[in-house]
Amino acid sequence: MATENLLLTALPREVYKRIENKMEQVDLSSGKILNRPGETIEEVYFPLTCLISVTITMMDGNTVEAGVVGSREMVGINAFMGGRETTQTQYIVQVPGNAVRMKAHLLLYEFDTNKPLRDVMLKYTQAYIAQISQNVACNRLHTLEKRMARWLLESSDRLYTDELFLSHEFLSHMLGVRRSGITETVQYLEKKGLIQCGRKKIQTIDRQGLEEASCECYGVIKEEYDRLLKFKLER
Q1: Which PANTHER family does the record cross-reference, listed alphabetically (predicted)?
Q2: Residue ranges in the chain modelled with pLDDT below 70
Q3: Using alpha carbons only, what angle is made at residue 222 by residues 219 and 228, rounded to the nearest 5 degrees?
Q4: pLDDT at 232
Q5: What's the Cα-to-Cα distance from 147 to each of 30, 106, 160, 199, rounded to whole Å?
């Protein structure tokens, strides 16, 4: 079983070996919905090479990203937090790739009976809540240019690549702005020499410059994950 998911590698080796045979590797296609609002979570996912958005859709149909899940996280924390439903959130695959899948009830059993695993999952939950909280402040206080720079950096970290295959329309949904705003912002970052854009592709060509263009939120969340889960994102 591959362990490119940093949350799984944060587990003590003997704990990982205990649950290894309860997991399977799967391919997830772009646009696949893993859970819809109100659905019971039957399976949890630990992304390896894919990227999953946690989205909220309002009554008027507008969608915005509340959080992103990649190679340092998991989808389905509700399964061990006392509720099995996804409430108002939806999990959708934004970048296709591989993930490790596990039955939710098996993870819940391990959570209840395995203290080392429970400790890691609770620390992850704390880090994930910090991400969601920081997103709220970021969306309210920071410019679109800074937010997009942060989003590109965080996505690249989780995918271990500086090439992201995404459309402007998709980015508009994730960042909660009109498509025209995304186009203008992409052009702005491209003119500064930070990224290079092609058809449904954005490549970072000056990572240090992109970090400088980003808001403080990128570093705050990265440090919180490192502090709580004792791992470093290697670039």
Answers
A1: CRP FAMILY TRANSCRIPTIONAL REGULATORY PROTEIN, HTH-TYPE TRANSCRIPTIONAL REGULATOR ARCR
A2: 1-3, 83-87, 231-235
A3: 135
A4: 46
A5: 23, 37, 20, 22
